[in-house]
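Handout for the seminar on molecular recognition.
Each group receives one record of this type.
Step one: identify the two inputs.
Step two: read the structure output and locate the region that could contact flavin-adenine dinucleotide.
Step three: write two sentences on what you found, then compare them with the reference statements printed after the record.
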Amino acid sequence: MDHVEIREAVKKLCAAFPGEYWRRMDQARAYPTEFVTALTEAGYLAALIPEEYGGAGLPLSAAAAILETVQAEGCNGAACHAQMYIMGTILRHGTPAQKETYLPKIATGELRLQAFGVTEPTSGTDTTSLRTFARREGDHYVVNGQKVWTSRAEHSDLMLLLARTTPKEETQKRTEGLSTFIVDMRAALGNGLTIRPIRTMMNHNSTEVFFDNMIVPAENLVGVEGRGFRYILDGMNAERLLIAAECIGDAKWFIEKATNYALDRKVFGRPIGQNQGVQFPIAKAYAQMRAAELMVHEGCRKFEAGENCGEEANMAKMLAAEASWAAGEACIQTHGGFGFAEEYDIERKFRETRLYQVAPISTNLILSYVAEHVLGLPRSY
Ligand SMILES: Cc1cc2nc3c(=O)[nH]c(=O)nc-3n(C[C@H](O)[C@H](O)[C@H](O)COP(=O)(O)OP(=O)(O)OC[C@H]3O[C@@H](n4cnc5c(N)ncnc54)[C@H](O)[C@@H]3O)c2cc1C
């Protein structure tokens, strides 16, 4: 789980992208192209792609170490983290031809597959009620509908899309009749695909996308028609563990920053960190972070052993997101007024890390998973 050499190398790479760089991106709501290019060229975004397809073939814990380090160094992996894990659906369920066509190019970064079209404005978390529909017509599908919060759509060549192929009323189970597609957004843009950016409280390059008779070749269907929901679920544990690792990195950044400031800043003739009222929130956040970190490691261990890690992946994501928030809260409070000044980067990281209590899944839904699937309590919805 340590991956010390990887952490050291990522740290070195991140040193070229200091707070000033991220502040500039944040203010302009710009995409950090140079940072993403550097990570791509160093091969980090291909960590999970097997060597036979040109990737590094590393275990999930190594990918987690990469993203944790990115965040702990004050950078923001949200611009590209999905390039690491969306391809997992093609890897696990794609045809040999799809794997040959896409994976080597995703590994080099020639193709960016970092847009994931699942969430819709009306159905929200109730994924099986999504309305985007793909109708088969001969050798292609015709897609109509809308997605929201499709992050990085403007900075991706491909999108993994979840759409209905059989109306919900005609299926036996609501999880059936959904299918996954690889959408070539370069071809579709202006031909049935429209992308509109959504300005958010942090720099996340999220968008809403509209499909108006968009054509997708039938060969771009991933796996079997109607089983797409299962395929998406298969990839969620890896995604949750990687996001959790990012939150651990954020928490470490906040805790280090808060500790250093508490040591340096003198008020009433002594370091503010001498006051237990200042120490305790930082110490508590540290304890929360360490506990969450253990859960991330346990989730990765089970994932790598091929065991079901649904419980650990979900809990890791919730605990880590809460730990990073507690650390952010302690950090901003420790800095007093300076916590609000842009040049300290704290308010930026504070805004960025808040997202992970909502996306890719909100805390309530994790608690509901644990209640129902781990504790055996009745299903509530
Ligand atoms: C910046 C950003 C980037 C994102 N990127 C992507 C992306 O790339 N691709 C993608 O597909 N999606 C993306 N999302 C969407 C994200 O996954 C959803 O916002 C999230 O899953 C919550 O869904 P919702 O916003 O529709 O909330 P809703 O489902 O409307 O829920 C609203 C609130 O009600 C609570 N709630 C709902 N139902 C229940 C229940 N049964 N019990 C208890 N509480 C409940 C939720 O926990 C939540 O707090 C992104 C979101 C954001 C904000």
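Reference statements: The beta strands are 113-117, 133-137, 140-148, 158-164, 178-184, 193-198, 206-217, 221-222, 266-267, 270-271. The pocket of flavin-adenine dinucleotide is lined by residues 116-119, 124-125, 149-151, 200, 204, 206, 355, 358-362, 364-365, 368, 381 (CB under 6 Å).
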